[in-house]
Amino acid sequence: MTRQEEFRRRAAAALANPRIRDNLGRFGIAYGTARRNALAVVDYEKERARLRRMKEDAIERLPELARQFVEAARRVGVIVYEAKNAEEANRYIGDLARAKGVELVVKSKSMVSEEIGLNHHLERLGITPVEADLGEWIIQQAGAHPSHSVMPCIHMSKEEVAGVFSKALGREVSPDVSLMVRLAREELREKFLSAGMGISGANIAVAETGSVIIVTNEGNGRLVTSLPPIHVALLGYDKIVPTIEDAAAHLKLLAKTATAQHLTVYTTFITGKTGAAAVARPREFRGAATGEMHIVLLDNGRWAMRDDAEFREALYCVRCASCANVCPTYRVVGGHVFGHIYTGVIGAVITPFHHGWEAAAVPQEACLLCRACVDACPAEIDLPRMIVAMRGRIVEQEEQQKKAKGIRRLFLDAILPSPSLFHLALRLAAVMQLPLTRGRTILRELPGPLKRLTRIRAMPAVAARPLRSRVAEVLPARRDSSRSVTFFASCLIDQFYPEIGEAVIKVLNHCGVTVHFPKAQSCCGLPAYYEGHKETAGRMAKGLIVALEPSPGEHVVTATPPCGITLKQYIPKLVKGDPRWEGRGQALAARTLDFSEYLVGVLGLGEGTFGEPTPHKVPLTYHDSCSGLRGLRLAEPQRRLLRMLTRYELRELDEIGECCGFGGHFSMDYPDVAGEVLTRKLAAIERTGAQVVAVDSPGCLLQIRGGLLKRHSPVQVRHIAELLAEALA
Amino acid sequence: MPLLRHVEERVYQTWEASRRRQSSILSRFVAEAERAGGVVRQAVDPQAVGFSIAALAKAQGITLCQATDGDLARELNLEAALIEAGVSLVTGPSPDGIGHAEIGVTRATAGVAETGSIVVHLDEVDARLLTMLPEIHVALLHQDTVVDSLEEGLLLTRYLILRSCLQGRPSYLSWVTGPSRTADIERVLTIGVHGPRQLHIFLLPPAGKGIGSS
To answer: Do the chains contact at B125 and A293, CB–CB below 8 Å?
Structure first.
């Protein structure tokens, strides 16, 4: 089974349970508002830059800080054990519990203990571990794994939880949340008082004083670390920071981003074991009455991550789960699909280091590369970049193991990079589709193996004549002007939506700009890049540099933001370090502008009006493409152009910046997941009452227009260039 | 210990600066602590606090109250007030109280206005349990020990911990921000899971001793 097939299988199982996406969907909306309110009291960009710098510094200095931490902890009597891997950590804790005659262990929330499978290990030794965090306790009683790192049972309804309570307590429990919380308090209080060992994790560890900092809301963390005579803190090296003061940005942002609180209820600084509670000293405990604290410092792939330039920044994570909360596909499939032990986007990225590449190959498929998580991350971690890097390594491994699927490889590595083969294939498709299209430009249903493409949306037909056959190489301005641009059309505009290309040219010509359209241009290589075919993407980058370099336009203009990102950001990266290409890649990047950005930024459009005055304005909404909004950081130019249109009245969507679910290959490979994301987008569009949806990217146009057509909606979807051109007519 | 002296100097400067802006810092503290679900009361006369605690106990049908030490109980006139209300009092970390008392009365070392937190620095585990096991935690906080920002709070925390650590002494310090809570089941906010369901903070007049002075 390929990883794509396996992901489809897992996603289908999650999609069959509507509870997951109902809970997560509702949560996502509530989270967005609550998070914004919580962050309103701080300068978010300043604080996250501070957190980022602090983590960069701490991880850079980790060898020194780790030594300092161990020494400081030993100074206050802590027994420190450094574990290379899960097995060593488990063995140490299990042996300790056995040596001390411990039968019952209470635990506060520790994802590291999930990472190493500690509960399982203790159970095999005949020791009973009890999770004390309410969500973790429910998950443990249900015999499941957490689907979210902050809210472990977010995927469960209160009825399901009541079922778990009934079974665990041996009596009928009604699905009343406050009743269940009270029962859990009573049930667990007794465990706290009789446990011989408490195991905690740590949110932060402090090199200067050997302290561990634990944040909890329920208060279980303080009981686990105070009542039992032995406290074991299990943590990764990545938690270490220089001093308590360095925790400021971390603490300031963690609760706000994780649960929209200003601070968690209990922020506890534990520096050694201050004694054992008289009330909770079990008779069988043979240890010293003063108690003991052990710290298990775990490597398990963390040092390798630190030494891996592409993945080091994953160690800056503070485990707030924002990347999951804002992720459009996480909100559809949940953490059991998007994740292994660690869930969500960061979970997918760190899985190879803790649990191997085999475990990591499938969950990362859930990423649409919409970048919502980049803005949401309090440590500014570029998760999509690491997802792409992961795909590169997975593809390499599949090549070596001969696991890659022939047709996919053939398309990405042989057809796409060859302009002649690629365009020939498209012309063949244009002919072969004739019996299906019968002259129409829309395909509502595709047959056979292509059926998947039209499951959630209608598809555009391949244009009978692509843009390259419809326009000349030089398209002069309507009035004399020295301005000229080179138009990079993108495959979607060239081959599927040539009318958008014509509109771009018309608007530019009208504004006095001569448009050059070098016919040597072909695909920019984005599909290969995003799917981890880095070598192919590199070849295609060079091909595009050669095709566009001689064209005399002052700027290169695109009306397809994802390809704009390729030209501006990925191509320079792909040719970096190659002295013959590096400068040329940078020159292309510097020349490239998005259509809206060019009109507003260079030509100074954005004031005044476009079109004849009209008494009745048509309601219009604007959908930001992920690439335009977060990739190119463009939100204003598009809106300024739309506000110039006399015919329309702009109404904003209530969830600005949400992905439409296109994601290039994603919506082709995983239409059911993409379809759920699209459904949410269409509902948001409907709420505005708009009759027209404006977009800046033909990918979003394909997805949203196709979805509306499939639902027989009269709402139109137009590229900004088309709306501007129409106003000129 | 030049490091400790340096940190101590900064703590002192913070305290000096905070005293000059005390009323604005205090109103910020009260607003944030109440937003987190705490109840804050000004106590002009510490001797009257005992009656407030007794009234609280009586209203909620509570019969056993425990304070960390006799000095604190005397400062608040707690015993007389509770006798009048028919509530028993245990002072000190006696096993008669721990696990049974429904109100725990402790001091707080400091407050942090930005987050509405109290800093509870109780190294003795049985005293500390009074902030964890009872249904109600009552904390006494001197007004002039409230600092403004989270950063200042961390500076103070660093000082307190460093002071113990450099002498090889373990320590345990918590910032408490409102009562215990969870939202683990269907994200329904529920107060009082493992810790206290109520947090009452009494703001006592300035002690004039600085913050964290031993």
So the answer is: no
A178 touches chain B (CB under 8 A): yes
Are the Cβ atoms of A251 and B98 closer than 8 angstroms? no
Cross-chain Cβ contact A274/B187 below 8 Å:
no
Tell me if A611 is assigned to some domain.
no
Q: Among B133, B154, B194, whose Cβ lies nearest the Cβ of A244?
A: B154
Does A160 lie in the same domain as A147? yes
User: CB within 8 A of A409, min separation 6: which ones?
Assistant: none
Q: Do A17 and A76 have their domain in common?
A: no
Instruction: Select from B99, B154, B173 the Cβ nearest to the Cβ of A248.
Output: B154
Contacts of A178 in chain B (CB under 8 A): 190
Q: What is the ipTM of this complex?
A: 0.97
Q: Identify whether B131 is part of a domain.
A: yes
Tell me which chain B residue has its CA closest to the CA of residue A264. Answer: B177
Side-chain-side CA neighbours of A454 within 13 Å: the count stands at 17
Amino acid at A666: F
Total number of domains in chain A = 4
- The interaxial angle of helices A158-169 and A177-194, nearest 10 deg, is 40
- Residue of A177, A223, A267 lying closest to B186 (CB–CB): A177
Q: What is the span of the domain harbouring residue B189?
A: 2-204
The distance of Cα A194 from the centroid of its chain, to the nearest Å, equals 42
In a domain, B191, yes or no: yes
Within this chain, do residues A453 and A554 fall inside the same structural domain, yes or no? yes
Each residue's pLDDT tens digit in chain B (214 positions)?
A: 799 999 999 999 998 888 889 999 999 999 999 999 999 999 999 999 999 999 999 999 999 999 999 999 999 999 999 999 999 999 987 777 778 899 999 999 999 999 999 999 999 998 999 999 999 999 999 999 999 999 999 999 999 999 999 999 999 999 999 999 998 898 889 998 999 999 999 999 998 877 766 4
Pair (A178, A313) in one structural domain? no
Within 8 A of A133 by CB-CB distance, chain B residues are 184
Q: How many structural domains compose chain B?
A: 1
Number of residues written out for chain B: 214
Whether the CB-CB separation of B122 and B68 falls below 8 Å is answered with: yes
User: Is the CB of B176 less than 8 angstroms away from the CB of A266?
Assistant: yes
A495 to chain B, minimum CA–CA distance in Å?
Answer: 48
Residue A172 CA, chain-centre distance (Å), reads 40
The verdict on a CB contact (< 8 Å) between A274 and B172 is yes
Min Cα–Cα distance to chain B from A273, Å: 6
CB pair distance less than 8 Å for B124 and A275: yes
Which DSSP helix (H) or strand (E) runs through B146?
A: strand B146-147
Give kind and range of the element (H or E) at residue A687.
helix A671-688
A224 part of contact set with chain B, CB < 8 Å: no
Question: Does B210 fall in a domain?
Answer: no
In a domain, B190, yes or no: yes
Burial of residue B92, with CB atoms counted within 10 A of its CB: 0-12 exposed, 13-18 middle, 19 or more buried: middle
CATH number at residue B139: 3.40.50.10420
Distance from CA of B35 to the nearest CA of A (A): 10
Domain of residue A582 covers: 420-602
